[in-house]
Amino acid sequence: MKKSEIYLAGGCFWGVEHFMSLIKGVVSTEVGYANGKTKNPTYEEVCKSNTEHAETVHVTYDADTISLEKILSLFFKIIDPTSLNKQGNDAGVQYRTGIYFTDSNDLPVIEKMIMELSIDYDKPIVIEVFGLKNFYTAEDYHQKYLEKNPAGYCHINPALFELAKDTKS
């Protein structure tokens, strides 16, 4: 197994985490706060203070089973890549879209995928792409939230969860 990782911000992290966890080849998911300016922020601080963190999912995957390209193409199906600081009913800088990488070899792949995505839209793509500066694990009650609370709020169309389950690598 060739373990790789990517950090994805796509609005509320509950749905993004659940979606990603269903994909064959994804080894683990963890929700947290990324690329902000404060250390060890709490959910309250991220929501009410100016921490500049994004709700983010750390995705660890088996690159022998699924490619980064496939993960990103699925991620693009669950976000509005033209919506700045807003996904679904959630608005604020913590709900921005982003792709944060730890391996610089991923950057050309990410840039290519975003360029291809932009062909499908009249508006500019506002997904930020940066190297990961920091990531702080969210509180336990946020981890696997939709598994623990199946009726919990999610901005992602539930039919897309079936798409994730049925994905062929």
Descriptive tags:
6-stranded mixed sheet, 8 strands, Peptide Methionine Sulfoxide Reductase, Chain A, 169 residues, alpha+beta, 6 helices, 25% strand
What's the CATH H-level homologous superfamily? Peptide methionine sulphoxide reductase MsrA
What is the CA–CA distance across the termini? 14 Å
**Coarse shape:** globular
Residue runs with pLDDT of under 50 for 5 or more positions: none
Reconstruct the topology from this structure.
Blueprint: E1 3-10, H1 13-21, E2 26-34, H2 43-48, E3 54-62, H3 68-77, E4 86-87, E5 90-91, E6 97-101, H4 107-118, E7 128-131, E8 135-137, H5 145-148, H6 159-166
Parallel strand pairs: 6-7
Antiparallel strand pairs: 1-3, 1-6, 2-3, 2-8, 4-5
Description:
It is a single chain. With 169 residues, the protein is α+β, with helices and mostly antiparallel strands. The chain has a single domain, classed as Peptide methionine sulphoxide reductase MsrA (Peptide Methionine Sulfoxide Reductase, Chain A, 2-Layer Sandwich), CATH 3.30.1060. Helix content is 29%, strand content 25%. It has 6 helices and 8 strands; from the N terminus they run βαβαβαβββαββαα. A 6-stranded mixed sheet has the order 7-6-1-3-2-8, with helices on one face. A two-stranded antiparallel sheet has the order 4-5. Helix 4 links the parallel strand 6 and strand 7.
In brief:
The protein is of the alpha+beta class. The chain has helices spanning 13-21, 43-48, 68-77, 107-118, 145-148, 159-166, and strands spanning 3-10, 26-34, 54-62, 86-87, 90-91, 97-101, 128-131, 135-137.
